[in-house]
Write a structure and sequence with these properties.
It contains four helices and two strands; from the N terminus they run αβααβα. It is mainly alpha-helical. It has a domain at 79-159. It has a two-stranded parallel sheet. The radius of gyration is 41 Å and the shape is elongated. It starts with a helix and ends with a helix. The relative contact order is 0.11.
């Protein structure tokens, strides 16, 4: 669909009296140039705009201008491997605990040790590593399973 006025004239329905919906009967199709207002004196017409000027950067790369703070580069924080190992050993001690009792105690103690070491490493460098929640969960699972396994073994020994 083109934007010329004749194509719009063709699309408008005829109304009684020969005028279109937006025209009055007997009015010219387009207003004469004398009806158009000249541009205000403080503005130039759009045809007489300034020629294109090359963009000139105001400041080269380097220090920030006065009043601005340099941006901060955030480094990704990694989860400490000891903390992840602690939670994995804690989960394994719970799942294997129903099958092999000696492995349960060993995995539980390892989960506790890795959890404590993981928390120490995170507290030593909190800006570069995280994962103390995983370590606490590993310590909790390891402690619970070690205590329950030792209680179960104690009940078996006392029952004999």
């Amino acid at each position: 669909m083109s934007d010329d006025p004749q194509s719009h004239d063709e699309e408008q329905p005829e109304v009684p009296g020969g005028a279109r919906g937006w025209e009055q009967p007997g009015a010219p199709a387009h207003p004469p140039q004398s009806y158009l207002a000249p541009p205000p004196p403080h503005q130039q017409p759009w045809v007489q705009q300034q020629p294109f000027q090359q963009y000139q950067p105001q400041q080269q790369w380097g220090a920030a201008p006065a009043g601005y703070v340099d941006y901060v580069v955030y480094r990704p924080v990694k989860t400490d491997g000891f903390c992840v190992t602690s939670i994995i050993l804690g989960i394994c001690s719970v799942t294997i605990g129903f099958c092999i009792f000696p492995a349960t105690v060993i995995l539980g103690i390892m989960a506790i040790v890795f959890g404590i070491l993981g928390i120490r490493r995170v507290r030593a460098a909190p800006e570069s590593s995280t994962g103390s929640g995983l370590a606490i969960a590993g310590i909790s699972l390891g402690s619970i399973i070690v205590v329950l396994t030792l209680l179960f073994i104690g009940l078996i020994v006392l029952a004999d």
